[in-house]
Amino acid sequence: MSLSFRVGRLFGIPIRVHLLFLVLVGFLVASAPPGTEIDAVAYLGILFGSVLLHELGHALVARRFGAVIHDVALWPLGGLARMSGMPQRPWPELAVALAGPTMNLGLLLIALLLGVLPDAKGALGREGALASLASVNAALALFNLIPAFPMDGGRALRAILSARFDYLRATETAVRIGRICVVAATSAAVFGPLPFWPIAILGLFLWIQGSIELAQVRAQFGADPISEFFRQAFGSRVVEEALRQQEAPPPPKPKPEEDLGSELENYRGTLDEFFREKRKPS
Ligand SMILES: [Zn+2]
């Protein structure tokens, strides 16, 4: 991630902070009413500390399932755990998606427990800190569970759908539901009684990120946009039937080396599978 720098390491995972995140924090502290700057810093510390632990929740559970965690970063729209090699199986994906909100629910529980313990109240200083910890984490857990793919709720939805349907169809459905959430939330935020533009910016980001991930899954499944259009318009069976009819007359055998390109073009699978099949002795 450009414009970001490493600030430390937690559980062996590098923690990075984006320059724009620092600009945002600086702006928020500077715009706090005079005399409340310390409170603003404390509140932002609780907020972004909770966001960081939320992301670490995702990262630590993903690592248990064999994913490689590159880093956890704080940036203006929240936190981001960058990872690769996450298995595309329903239950690991569901566990990783829910790990972040579960971390927030854990922090909420801690805040509530400390709040009712009479001794701990004094030891921890201001009750306001515990109230902030509780409200921030309740809000983070609920907000992240909105099924707006690629938010956690959307990822959990895809995981549940992929237990029933194939991964491509599960992703398409989750992205479509996510877009409905984005349009609804953005319309409410922009045209509502109290316009709140950050939701529109987040909505735009979610829409773009969801589209990118959908394109990646489509490419992985060898689903090109044109056949996807017909598949979505007429249902998969009609298109499969049409393809089968097209395939009926066997094409003349091409010379092996000159038609590798067109063979690859017509191949319905990943690049790896294509070359694995090519390598097989016939
Ligand atoms: Zn999350």
In short:
With 282 residues, the chain is an alpha+beta fold.
What does this structure look like?
The protein is an alpha+beta fold and 282 residues long. The chain has 2 domains: 1-145, no CATH class; 147-221, no CATH class. Helix content is 67%, strand content 10%. The protein contains 12 helices and 4 strands, in the order E-E-H-H-E-E-H-H-H-H-H-H-H-H-H-H. Strands 1-2-3-4 form a 4-stranded mixed sheet. A hairpin with a 2-residue loop joins strand 3 and strand 4. The longest helix has 28 residues, at 37-64. It starts with a strand and ends with a helix.
Q: For the terminal residues, how far apart are their CA atoms?
A: 45 Å
Series of H and E elements: EEHHEEHHHHHHHHHH
The parts where pLDDT drops under 50 for at least 5 residues are none
Largest sheet: 4 strands, mixed
Widest β-sheet, arrangement of strands: 1-2-3-4
Residue share in helix: 55-70%
Bound molecules: zinc ion
Q: In terms of structural class, how would the helical and strand content be classed?
A: alpha+beta
Q: What is the CA-atom radius of gyration, in angstroms?
A: 24 Å
What percent of residues are in strands?
5-15%
